[in-house]
Write a structure and sequence with these properties.
Length: 264
């Protein structure tokens, strides 16, 4: 019995010691976990606060640009002011230390610059500004749309198609992108795909321009009845459109009707 009791003591001691270690470990783990949770919560709070402050700063920056542009009389003066601002942002050491913030600020400036050049009728500079926007934000669907539309005007249809495809990927509900892609496909004589795009634009928005472009495509395919349906739809539903556009539609109707009569 003595030996059994003696031998049992170390076992009881070890058992008690192990339980103490486990208990301390659990308590310590809970304390560490609680501390980490608080630190993460604080970190996320500070990030959210900084982001909110950053968004307010961006709004103020954007408004400041808007008011500064309104004080300038000429479009070229506005373009020069924005170009100077962009140069200063790129060369400022503070912005170089925070490139993420710099890019957000540059994005606002280039968006204004693209708008100014567009109103000036300078397609090449507008295109360049849109390209800079895309470099800064690859998910800006409108920048792809504007650049793609300019490529189309320049006859660079492959590039136009790539940009308009990207616009539709990013903005699948934007009717204008389908309409402009339809124009590219019509110009490259992909009439079936052009009809699909114009029909999608009609479905999304019902714009007279989309109806007119689809009617013109039907005319190219010699589907004169369908062309007339689209043209007449425009005349019946046209409101607040320029008289020149109405005259153009009416002329298209006469051309199609003459073509149909000659086939009889």
């Amino acid at each position: 019995m003595k030996y059994i009791a003696t031998l049992s003591l170390p076992l009881l001691f070890i058992s008690c010691k192990s339980t103490s270690v486990v208990n301390i470990g659990i308590i310590g783990f809970i304390a560490i976990f609680g501390t980490m949770f608080l630190l993460f919560a604080l970190m996320f709070f500070l990030i959210a606060k900084r982001k909110k402050q950053g968004e307010k700063s961006l709004v103020k920056f954007n408004n400041d640009i808007y008011f500064a542009l309104n004080r300038l009389d000429t479009p070229q003066g506005k373009a020069n002011m924005l170009s100077t601002l962009i140069g200063r942002i790129n060369n400022d050491e503070k912005y170089k230390k925070d490139t993420e913030w710099r890019d957000k600020v540059l994005l606002k400036a280039y968006t204004h610059l693209a708008t100014v050049y567009y109103h000036m009728g300078d397609e090449m500079q507008t295109l360049n500004a849109c390209s800079e926007i895309i470099k800064l934000d690859s998910k800006d669907g409108m920048a792809y749309y504007n650049r793609g539309s300019i490529y189309s005007n320049m006859g660079l249809y492959e590039k136009a198609l790539q940009d308009l495809n990207k616009t539709i990927e990013l903005m699948p509900g934007y009717a204008g992108a389908y309409n402009n892609r339809g124009l590219v496909r019509k110009k490259t004589e992909h009439y079936g795909e052009a009809l699909d795009d114009f029909s999608k634009a009609v479905e999304l928005e019902g714009s007279p321009i989309a109806y007119y472009n689809r009617g013109n495509t039907y005319y190219e395919l010699k589907e004169y009845d369908k062309a007339l349906d689209d043209y007449n739809h425009i005349i019946r539903n046209m409101e607040n459109y320029q008289p020149d556009f109405k005259k153009e539609v009416e002329q298209s109707i006469r051309i199609v009707e003459d073509r149909k009569s000659n086939l009889k």
